[in-house]
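Could someone model NAI with this protein?
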Amino acid sequence: MSKMHIGIIGAGTMGSGIAQLAAGAGHDVILVDVNDAVVRNAGAGIQKSLNRLVEKSKMTNQEAISIYGRIHFHNELNILKDSQFVIEAIVENLKIKKELFVQLENIVNPSCILASNTSSLSINALASALKIPSRFLGLHFFNPVPVMPLVELIPGLSSDRYAMDTVLECMQQWGKISVIAKDTPGFIVNRIARPYYSEALRIYEEGIADFATIDYAMTSIHGFKMGPFALMDFIGNDVNYAVTQSVWEACYFEPRYRPSITQRNLVSANWLGKKTGKGFYNYELELPLPDTQNKLLLSGIANRILYMLINEAVDAWYFGLASYEDIELAMTKGVNYPMGLLHWAKELGIQHCLSGMETLHNSYKEDRYRPSPGFLKLISDVHE
Ligand code: NAI
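Reply:
Sure, complex below.
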């Protein structure tokens, strides 16, 4: 692929990361933000990130200088008039994003491809603001962009093959692993990962175990890198809660995604996690020790959360949110799960996982625990 003129709008966390990535792949990048202070900070932030890579011998000082030299910082959209591909990474607000796209279409050429890095808004709703919606798609990166290998591509109803193919080729050249998701709330990763948090919260709320023990169960038994509470504190409870709430609302209040009052209380108290020093854990004190002895309790917790995750992945596959392969890639490359959830189901036995869900459903009699119809299809596919 030849070098392109890339425009990125929004020089915050994500926009800066995307700019570094695109410049690292050799493209000329213009990074635009309405806020002058953000534009200045973005330059310093990218430089710091590149310096770290030099210190770790991942690139030479000369390479870092060249990459930085390919990024041009601006506060005016008009500068994007010759861009061939523009990625929007501004504030997560439908009205503001739509207004931006209307403005942008009056500036760029009709052939310029447009993408949004939205994590929760409908791609079709954003596309509805455009005169040429065929050139538009969702392009969801993960934070930190230069490090996380995955990107989700989300075509809208109008997105054309050319736009998809061009962006797919571009992502490959930028060293990313692409998966294709339907335009559904949370796309693949943020949807399938919900039970990791919500079921852990539910187990805590039932008084079954404390945060440290639930975290320990997931890391020690199933090999997750971080337990759910440590991870929510790391992501930020405000961010994690907002994603849950938006997926829940956008899925017509599906009980599986219902947010937790425990987490809402933390957000209200500004106990946002690591960034405020306090969340589920108090990072100014010594962290509490888990109960490591009660093996039955630990495996009960770990399996319950895993069944719920598998149920979610099976459901996503059954309803065609993404292909089997992309669901597996998304969860291993987007959130570092130790194994693809569909493969995990096969290892444990699909019937065994279905029975796990049925036991939960029978004991709670709540819709939240109903097994996905996809289990039966998966079982019949395996036996074909
Ligand atoms: P951020 O708050 O760090 O940056 C957003 C930037 O957009 C700000 O600097 C703001 O000044 C600028 N902005 C707002 N309106 C603008 C406009 N009309 N024109 C130009 N610039 C404007 O936000 P962040 O975290 O970088 O998120 C950006 C987008 O990426 C959001 O849609 C978010 O949902 C999505 N996203 C965020 C992830 C994360 O982990 N932070 C992960 C994946 C997607």
